[in-house]
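Q: Start with the shorter request: fold the first protein.
A: Done. Sequence, then structure:
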Amino acid sequence: MYVIAFPLLLIPFALYNMIAFLLNMPFTDTLFSIPLMADRRLPVTTGDLLLVIAMLLIYVEVLKVTRVSKTVMDHLLSFILLAAMVAEIVLVPRVTTPTLMLMAVLSFVDVIIGLSVRGRPRPREIMYEDHDRDRF
C-alpha cells in the first residue's frame, strides 16, 4: 500500500493561520456551547475546536505510524511542520496564543512518536515445533 507523505497536523495549522490572518478572528470567541446538567453550559471556543481537531488527527498519525510504514519523508515533513509552528510562535507576535503553543506540542509529540516507533525493531513471529508428539 502506497501512502502519500503528508503531516495531518498541517490541516489545523492551516486553519489556525486562516482564522488569524484572513478572518482576523480571536481564538477566544465562543462558537457554540454544550449543554450540561443543572442548567450549565460548556462554551467551546475557536481555539478549543482547533485543538480537538488536532488531537483527533494526532490519533490518526499514531495509527499511520503503527499500521502503515511511515516513510522518512513523512518524518521530515512532520519535523518541518514543527519548526514552522515554533518559528511562528517566536517570530509573529500577532498569532502567539496558547492554542498555537499546544498545537506545536502536539506536533512535537507526532515527531517523537514517529521516531520512537520507527526506531523500534518489529517483533518477529516465533514458531514452536512440538517434537514430542511423534513419540506417542
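Q: Next, the second protein, separately.
A: Sequence, then structure:
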Amino acid sequence: MATASMQSHRARPQANGDERGRVLPLTRAGIWVLLVLAALNGLFLYFVPAQAETHYAWSIKPSVNAAFIGAGFLAGTVATGLVLAYATRWRSFSTLPIALWVLATTLLAATIIHNDRFRWAYPLTWVWALVYAGVPIAVPFLVARQRRAGGAAPEADPRLRTVRVLSGIVAVPLAVGAIALFAAPIDVGQHWPWPLTPLLGRVVAGWYALFATMLLTCAFGLRRPAEAIIPYATLATWCVLLLALPLLHPNDVSGAGWWIAGMVALLALALWALRIALPDRDRL
C-alpha cells in the first residue's frame, strides 16, 4: 500500500500534464549515490565512532569527533531519502545543492591542506578524495540541467515570512563562526566543547557552513511551505543527533552549555518551520 501511494504521488505531475520542474532521472541517480555514501559513512561514524581511529581515511579521535561527522552524514541520509521517496519537483529540495557544494568544497580544501594526515595507502581514502573532488563539479552541472527544465518560481507564500527572516538572521553568525573555525582552527578550536585538531576543526567548520548556507538559501529562495519540509527536516535531524553527543560521549565533552543552547535554538527554528510546512506536504 505504501509503495502504491508513493508511486501515485510521483505520478501526479505527469497526470496533470505538467512536466516543468520535474526531478530529472540523472539528478535522481546522483541523489541515489549520495544516499548510499551518506548512509554508509553516517552509520559507521555515529554508531561505532571508536573504529574511526584506525579504520577511516584519517585517524579521528576522540570518538565524539567521529560521531559529530557521522551526525552530518545521517542528516544527509534523511535529506536524500526524503527526496527519493517523496520529491517530484526540483523546487522541493532546490535549497540544498548550494549547501552541498559548500560542504564538499570545504572538505576538499581541508583534505588538500592536511593531506599529510590522510592514510593514502588505505583504499577508502581515495574514495573520500574522489567524492569531494567530484561533487563540486557534479553539483553545478546537475543544477544547471534542472534549472533549464524548471518553470518560473511562484510567488512567496506569506506564511513563510517569519521562517525566512529567522533563517537569514540565524545563518549569519553560523556562517561567520564556520569561516572563523576554518581560517583559525587552533585559536577558535580551543574554545570548542571537545578537542579538535586543525584538520577536524576545518571539517567541523564545513558542516556548520553547510547548514548556514542552507538557511541562507531558504531565507532567499523558499516560496511554498512544502519546499521547507526537506531542508528543515534535515536540520532537525542534525540537531537531535548532535544534542545526544554530550550524553553519548560524556568523557569527551565539557563546557558545552553555549553550544547546546545554540543547537537547541537551531532545533526550535527547524520545528517551527516544519509546523508550517507539513500541512502542505502533498505539494512536494
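Q: Describe the second briefly.
A: The chain has eleven helices and no strands. Residues 123-149 form the longest helix (27 residues).
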